[in-house]
């Protein structure tokens, strides 16, 4: 069950002053990538850095990294047990995400990180991570329609909720490629707080950050990757001006080419699960905005040299199925609808039934073969591979689906 609010996590951490400074990131899309770029750059610059993102990929603790390495399971469980004991002793009744947030923050203390890069779980204003007080810079990534039941029914309401991480006297960086209504809502909040704000995008980078413009000329990046890097580098400049005055931010740019964020345009071999030499494309696109990005990439990079694309898709219950899948699946494409398994630590997350998803997709005009696979994921991947016959294979629709693919691969390699 999702329960937004700061009172419970405040009580969990009231006896534990946080010993590190934070970079706080909110948004609908891109905040995970921005977090990865930032923590990588900070580590490259000699800053002891922790990162907390959500959801986890395979194991609950892999959402917490120290110095770009996943925290050790033994340390995670040790501190998690302490946090859960505190929760029970004080009768707080914290949610799973609040317990996880407190565990991450305690681990940052334990590991003596200098900067913690923290991604908002949902929204911003009432998200558990908004307990942060010693913030170097706040970042607002791309905002779209998502979690309307909790954040509001309009894009302006959602933007105001996410702008809830902005704090007096704390500078912020905003993705300036957001819709006009979003930018207006964010600008109003910036003005109310009288804080310094940098609105950044690839279009303005030549003027704002000339060395970054040169980097974009040399490295092949997708438009949304450029947007996220603009936000990360702008935020890094603000953060380092506080903790490493005079540091050469732009000397760190080459490290960006090495950053890989699983589940975002990820090319992955599925051997030995299936007999396929060509890599599959994995993407956790789960809302219309991220699906549009995926669709453009597939159309530009995968379709020109081949026939139809074969998909393996799944979705969380309650998602806008038409808004996600009608922007990426084309006439003639073949689709295996699947279901992801239980999500550790997030019992409220349920998969849309594969049969219901298949029924929705069959209404797409001139769609190819559609088969539903309830229960285990591997039969869906096997069928899709046989239908694809070496042509493009894409697995998409949910980060939880991507997690299950990685888990299957890990188990197969044991």
TrEMBL record:
Gene Ontology MF: a single term: metal ion binding
GO biological process: one-carbon metabolic process
Pathway assignment: Cofactor biosynthesis; tetrahydrofolylpolyglutamate biosynthesis
InterPro entries per the UniProt record, alphabetical: Folylpolyglutamate_synth, Folylpolyglutamate_synth_CS, Mur-like_cat_sf, Mur_ligase_C_dom_sf, Mur_ligase_cen
SUPFAM superfamilies listed in its UniProt record: MurD-like peptide ligases, catalytic domain, MurD-like peptide ligases, peptide-binding domain
E.C. designation(s): 6.3.2.12
Database matches in NCBIfam families: folC
Family from the record: Belongs to the folylpolyglutamate synthase family.
Name of this chain's protein: Dihydrofolate synthetase
Organism: Penicillium capsulatum
Lineage: Eukaryota, Fungi, Dikarya, Ascomycota, Pezizomycotina
């Amino acid at each position: 069950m999702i329960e937004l609010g700061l009172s419970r996590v405040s009580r969990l951490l009231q006896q534990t002053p946080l010993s590190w400074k934070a970079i706080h990131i909110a948004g609908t899309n891109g905040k995970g990538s921005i977090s990865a770029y930032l923590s990588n750059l900070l580590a490259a610059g000699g800053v002891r850095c922790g990162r907390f993102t959500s959801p986890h990929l395979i194991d609950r603790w892999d959402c917490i990294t120290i110095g770009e390495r996943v925290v050790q399971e033994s340390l995670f469980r040790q501190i998690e047990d302490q946090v859960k004991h505190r929760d029970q002793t004080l009768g707080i009744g914290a949610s799973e995400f609040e317990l996880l947030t407190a565990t991450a923050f305690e681990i940052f203390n334990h590991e003596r990180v200098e900067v913690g890069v923290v991604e908002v779980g949902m929204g911003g204003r009432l998200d558990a991570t908004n307990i942060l007080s010693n913030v170097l810079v706040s970042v607002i990534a791309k905002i779209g329609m998502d979690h309307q039941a909790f954040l509001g029914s309009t894009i302006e309401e959602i933007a105001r909720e996410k702008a809830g991480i902005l704090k007096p006297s704390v500078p912020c960086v905003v993705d300036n490629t957001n819709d006009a209504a979003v930018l207006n809502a964010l600008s109003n909040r910036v003005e109310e707080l009288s804080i310094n704000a940098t609105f950044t995008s690839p279009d303005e980078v030549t003027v704002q950050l000339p060395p970054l413009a040169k980097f974009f000329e040399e490295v092949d990046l997708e438009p949304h990757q450029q947007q996220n890097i603009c936000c990360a580098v702008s935020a890094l400049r603000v953060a380092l001006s506080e903790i490493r005055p005079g540091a050469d931010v732009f000397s760190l740019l080459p490290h960006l080419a090495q950053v890989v964020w699983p589940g975002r345009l990820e090319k992955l071999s599925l051997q030995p699960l299936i007999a396929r030499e060509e890599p599959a494309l994995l993407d956790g696109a789960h809302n219309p905005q991220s699906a549009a990005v995926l669709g453009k990439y597939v159309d530009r990079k995968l379709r020109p040299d081949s026939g139809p694309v074969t998909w393996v898709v799944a979705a969380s219950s309650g998602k806008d199925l038409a808004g996600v899948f009608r922007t990426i699946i084309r006439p003639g494409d073949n689709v295996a609808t699947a279901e992801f398994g239980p999500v550790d630590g997030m019992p409220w997350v349920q998969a849309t039934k594969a049969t219901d998803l298949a029924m929705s997709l069959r209404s797409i005009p001139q769609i190819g073969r559609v088969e539903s696979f309830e229960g285990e994921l591997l039969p869906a991947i096997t069928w899709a591979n046989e239908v694809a016959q070496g042509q493009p294979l894409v697995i998409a629709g949910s980060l939880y689906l991507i997690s299950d693919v990685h888990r299957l691969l890990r188990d197969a390699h044991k």
